[in-house]
Amino acid sequence: MKIAVDAMGGDHAPEAIVEGAVLAAREFDIPIILVGISHRVHQELEKYDDWKKLDLEVEHADEVVEMADSPSKVVRSKRKSSIKIGLDLVKKGEASAFVSAGNTGAVLAYSTIILRPLKGVDRPAIAIQLPTIKGSSILLDAGANVDCKTNQLFQFGIMGHAYAKYILGKDNPRVGLLSIGEEDSKGNETTKEAFKLLKKSHINFTGNIEGKEVYRGTVDVIVCDGFTGNVALKISESLAEMIGISLKNLFNSGMTTKLSYLLLKPHLAELKKMVDYSETGGAPLLGINGVCIIAHGSSSPKAIKNAICRAHEFIEKKINEHICEDIENNLDGKGSLWQHLKEIVTGSEDEPPSPSQTSEDRTNPSKE
């Protein structure tokens, strides 16, 4: 079960990436393939005396995808990049998962082209784990799809349900649809139709939730389009940064507050750990026929280590198999996914014909 890691992706590559891989190999004994410009990767590995004793290998890649590169241009022009080669290893079965802190758009584009979506999934979604008052929840999509159709939001709900159940350990995950009000009638046309689909699915759909409920822990899975999800995520990051700076300024404002800090330090450390993205490492790209973890661009070695661990957990718990099973279960033996969605939206499945009414009678009411 080898994990391919993009050694050239991220703001602090390859230093932080290689260090994170070394930490993961030491702590979890996970076989790792570092994909990147080989001489630069080996130069970093030589900083660690024990690296040759670890299950680490290097796969050479001629090109590097920069953070500012256009994904569409990258797909056409950088065919020997560390991202493409790493995903090719997964496609060929030489690696079981791929981890990258590089250009998110490029990782998304290459993953969709090389690994392809799972059966029954139109588009993959980025699932972000968020801290809440009651523990943690996941939000998807966090930026993979700016515009979403009704059936895609429905699929996000199913994928999020499987992830929350098997990764977060929620027995019956509560799924909510992010909207501008709790009432069924609130939202745009897309979310209203998605509400109908999710309500009649087999998952534990609790209805719409407002933005103020995201961190209250009222649901375990928050479904939204990628535009909304990414804006919510960036606002949250900005708020966390503001609170951190404000607290630092407050505790440095006088002797009394400095003493208060010493008393509160253990509790503040717990709070910091709860909101620290590096604790989870990265966000899975749900819905592709393979395992891909997207780490934050400014990931630390600790974040990379935990992203590799998350990829390993994703494989062990067979999340993709569970997603496919959930999609099949929600078809309920009614044929294709599209047919089932059409029946739910039009309400035809709510009006079954009486046993005495034949197909011909329904199409020709005048017939006696």
Would you give an account of this structure?
It is a single chain. The protein has 368 residues and is of the alpha/beta class. It has helices at residues 15-28, 38-45, 71-77, 82-91, 104-114, 150-166, 189-199, 226-251, 255-275, 301-316, 319-331, 337-346, 359-363; strands at 3-6, 32-36, 56-60, 97-100, 125-126, 128-132, 135-140, 174-178, 204-209, 221-223, 282-286, 292-295. The chain has two domains: 1-121 and 287-318, Isopropylmalate Dehydrogenase, CATH 3.40.718.10; 122-270, Isopropylmalate Dehydrogenase (3-Layer(aba) Sandwich), CATH 3.40.718.10. Helices cover 46% and strands 15% of the residues. The protein has a seven-stranded mixed beta sheet, with helices on both faces. Helix 1 links the parallel strand 1 (3-6) and strand 2. The termini are far apart.
* CATH fold-level topology of the largest domain: Isopropylmalate Dehydrogenase
Order of helices and strands: EHEHEHHEHEEEHEHEEHHEEHHHH
Category by helix and strand content: alpha/beta
The fraction of residues in strands falls at: 5-15%
Q: Major β-sheet, in short?
A: 7 strands, mixed
Strand line-up in the sheet with most strands:
3-2-1-4-12-11-5
Percent in helix: 40-55%
Q: Compute the CA-based radius of gyration.
A: 23 Å
Q: How many independent structural domains?
A: 2
Poorly predicted segments: 350-368
Q: Compute the average pLDDT.
A: 88
Name of the level-1 CATH class of the largest domain? Alpha Beta
Distance between the first and last residues' Cα: 67 Å
How many β-strand runs? 12
Superfamily at the CATH H level of the largest domain? Answer: Isopropylmalate Dehydrogenase
Envelope shape: globular
CATH architecture of the largest domain: 3-Layer(aba) Sandwich
The number of distinct helices, counting runs of at least 4 residues, comes to: 13
